[in-house]
């Protein structure tokens, strides 16, 4: 059984993320943890009376969070009937990174799913600050980041940008393989670069990747970076009509470039393709 966190802030983007996750993993047994994190601003509450008041505020926020989680679960149950799936609700006070890391250990989590934008996110930003922070800080659990307006129906092709800079382990690739055991999708591996001559190390990594994907349907492509890494990846995904992008998280590699580029933070990118982030060794 898979254990999956559905991290929600009750936005429409979060609802898109929930429905996409349920559809993606419809064919396997899952326990979904519908999760909300609240972080009250308590710096101004000092002294015995203020401390008591702060306690009331925190208690109230927890009650609201639990009530909204129950409402969301009721909404899910109205539209989603799947004997493979069961649900729990969780709310935590404090920093979302710390909360997710604790839950990942406590519940043996296999995947964290989230929206790319929060309830207050600006319309012209593809990925909000909380999503970027989670992608940066969470290092042991794969992450599914779902943009707003995603209308997932089926998984037919997954694009996998790489620089062949690392030898991806079997453990790193396992979440992708698990997903592809549920969907007969092809993997479109593509080298993102300005220059395509491979070093000996890159050749070895490419060969190892081929061996680890040998039982799957895959093909190799090359994509030149003409403006930014993000635009190159998203343009290729749209050209191939892919339903998912997957990237492996390592320091100083494509994912870091992808989320750090100004185009992600400031410029509108018209895409609704989910991104599966695998954790590098």
Automatic annotation (TrEMBL):
InterPro entries, alphabetized: Rossmann-like_a/b/a_fold, Universal_stress_UspA, UspA
Domain UspA: 2-147, 209-278
Pfam families: Usp
Family the entry assigns: Belongs to the universal stress protein A family.
Protein name: Universal stress protein
Provenance organism: Poritiphilus flavus
């Amino acid at each position: 059984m898979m254990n999956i966190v559905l991290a929600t802030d009750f936005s429409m983007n979060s609802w898109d993320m929930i429905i996409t996750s349920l559809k993606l993993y419809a064919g396997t047994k899952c326990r979904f943890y519908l999760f909300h994190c609240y972080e009250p601003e308590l710096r101004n509450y000092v002294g015995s009376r203020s401390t008591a008041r702060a306690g009331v505020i925190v208690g109230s926020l927890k009650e609201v969070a639990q009530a909204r989680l129950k409402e969301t679960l009721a909404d899910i149950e109205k539209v989603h009937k799947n004997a493979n799936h069961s649900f729990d609700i969780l709310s935590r006070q404090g920093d979302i990174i710390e909360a997710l890391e604790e839950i990942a250990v406590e519940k043996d989590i296999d995947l964290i799913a989230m929206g790319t934008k929060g309830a207050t996110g600006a319309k012209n930003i593809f990925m909000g600050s909380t999503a970027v922070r989670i992608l940066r800080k969470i290092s042991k659990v794969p992450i599914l980041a779902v943009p707003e307006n995603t209308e997932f129906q089926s998984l037919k092709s997954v694009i996998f940008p790489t620089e062949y800079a690392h030898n991806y382990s079997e453990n790193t690739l396992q979440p992708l393989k698990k997903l592809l055991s549920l969907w007969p999708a092809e993997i479109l591996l593509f080298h993102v670069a300005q220059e395509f001559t491979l070093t000996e190390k890159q050749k070895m990594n490419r060969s190892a990747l081929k061996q680890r994907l040998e039982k799957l349907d895959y093909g190799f492509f090359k994509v030149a970076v003409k403006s930014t890494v993000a635009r190159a990846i998203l343009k290729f995904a749209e050209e191939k009509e892919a339903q998912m992008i997957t990237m492996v998280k390592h320091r100083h590699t494509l994912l870091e470039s992808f989320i750090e580029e100004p185009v992600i933070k400031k410029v509108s990118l018209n895409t609704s393709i989910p991104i599966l982030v695998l954790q590098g060794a």
